UniProtKB/TrEMBL annotation:
Beta-alanine binds at Q68. Keywords: ATP-binding, Cytoplasm, Ligase, Nucleotide-binding, Pantothenate biosynthesis. The gene is panC. This is Pantothenate synthetase. It comes from Methylosinus trichosporium (strain ATCC 35070 / NCIMB 11131 / UNIQEM 75 / OB3b). Catalyzes the condensation of pantoate with beta-alanine in an ATP-dependent reaction via a pantoyl-adenylate intermediate.
Length: 290
């Protein structure tokens, strides 16, 4: 149920955002920041709670960024529900919601981009969405410059994106510490995502199979089974469940380089697969054997 008035202060202009942040900083308060595209769920709220543990003030942005969507993607139908988002942010005591218009973020004549390499060229998401990380990088760089936070929290569900943003912030000397927060899941293991609303009832029943396959594969690799064999069987399992797989791979957790043996470094399993028209992504760490 939504309220008739904003439950968290809402600003749409960069000037007002900077005025509020400057007032807090003048009082010696640390600023936390959580960038989102809205359609907030409990996974997003967990990021706000993580920021709250690390800072006195928390700003959440809601901006559906057109530059990270390709022409064949779902920019037009991406869910937008700002009033409900404000009510959810009130539940976790966010201090401010920054929801700029596209014209505020990209005024007429805007012509600057951010070129990203390293983890942005890992042959994972970038293979299927070649312009995506350039769009993410420019909007995140702008938001971090606009809000000037001490810390910014991003979910580990978008793991490659997290590494891209960490690399960009380091390379461009941005002041914010980039914090990764664990993926929040439904009771059956499905990673929370704004796109889950696109799943039909039957697809929603099948969807947790992706996470189950990752968990099983991670356990087998941790126990010493060969990575190539395990990942091949995981792909077969996911395809048999009804997914069309974009990728399901074991990578080095820090660089996203391909790994063939457990000894090659800390491992992360990453997957993207489609159920019908809905594309799901997920990832988990391979724990060290005890």
């Amino acid at each position: 149920m939504t309220s008739s008035a904003p439950s968290v202060p809402l600003v749409g202009s960069l000037a007002e955002l900077r005025r509020r942040v400057a007032d807090w900083r003048a009082r010696g308060e640390r600023i936390g920041f959580v960038p989102t595209m809205g359609a907030l769920h409990d996974g997003h709220l967990s990021l706000v709670e993580e920021a709250r543990r690390r800072a006195e003030r928390v700003v959440v942005s809601v901006f559906v960024n057109p530059t990270q969507f390709a022409a064949n993607e779902d920019f037009g139908r991406y869910p937008r529900m700002l009033e409900a988002d404000l009510d959810r942010l009130a539940r976790v005591a966010a201090d401010l919601c920054y929801a700029p218009a596209v014209e505020e973020m990209y005024p007429p004549g805007f012509s600057t981009g951010v070129t990203v390499g390293g983890p942005a060229e890992a042959d994972l998401e970038d293979r299927f969405r070649p312009t995506h990380f350039a769009g993410v990088a420019v909007v995140v760089a702008k938001l971090l410059n606009q809000a000037e936070p001490d810390i910014a929290v991003f979910g580990e569900k978008d793991y490659q994106q997290l590494l891209v943003i960490r690399r960009m912030a380091r390379d461009l000397d941005l002041r914010a510490e980039i914090v990764g927060a664990p993926t929040l899941r439904e009771a059956d293991g499905l990673a929370m995502s704004s796109r889950n609303v696109y799943l039909s009832d039957e697809e929603r029943r099948v969807a947790p199979a992706l996470h189950r396959a990752l968990v099983a594969a991670a356990g087998r690799i941790s126990a010493g089974e060969p990575i190539g064999h395990v990942m091949g069987e995981a792909r077969e399992e996911v395809a048999t469940a009804g997914f069309a797989i974009d990728y399901l791979e074991a990578r080095h957790a820090l660089t996203l380089a391909r790994i063939a043996r457990r000894q090659d470094g800390p491992a992360r399993l990453l997957a993207a697969a489609r159920l019908g028209a809905t594309r799901l992504i997920d990832n988990i760490a391979v724990e060290e054997a005890r």
